[in-house]
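Question: what's this shape?

___
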Amino acid sequence: MATVIVVTNQKGGVGKTTTCAALTGIFRSRDKKVLAIDMDPQGNLSFSLGAEDEGYTIHDVMTGKCSIREAIKTTHICDVITSNILLSGSELELDSDRREFILKRALETVKDDYDYIIIDTPPALSILTINAYTAANDLIIPMTPEILSLQGIAQLRETILAVKKYYNKNLNIRGILLTKFVPRYALSHEVEEMVQIVADQLQTQVLDIKIAVSIAAAEAPAHQQVLTKYSPNSRASRNYTKLAEYLYPEIISAKKKR
């Protein structure tokens, strides 16, 4: 049965989509079956993974217009459920009882088909985000070493704790991941110290593995390739590989694709 991994932060530009795509590429390189779900109306993960903007999307799944299997598209990287701008109206459309569990119920029908399901969330605390948290096993919180990014996590805290209390008591917050990290900047280390306070409140950790700032991470989506395939020797790519092996050590002994 699949491990459902949600990558989240209500602040944009912190590396959520890059993290999702990188983990997808690493898991696929180890012969793992992966389903990527784009829950962001901007559809950046869909584009990054080479998914066509046609057919059913996660919006159709959430509103009951199709089954989750009907929405799955297969790309040269992995299986993907795409998103588009229609998803931005979900807050008003999803008015049914127990609407927080729509995604969780849908995933139950496909979880046995995959090893990992990776969900990219919107930069907002919406019903979409809550659905993702409710369906998740693991939560990864990327942030850049900036004060505004730190504020985003502090605001996220209340939502995460509420979901753990009311909808998903088994939600596992794997850690806060510092991205676009530049060790020589004093601010990077100052924010790292401050974010530890929030991590303690969430009963999680600030991950020791940090993701280096990398131009390759910005270039890879334009080529519809995952970072670890586009620039496998870049520092950020090596950082993501270490992260995946640290959080999911079962992939270490898995076969690496050439």
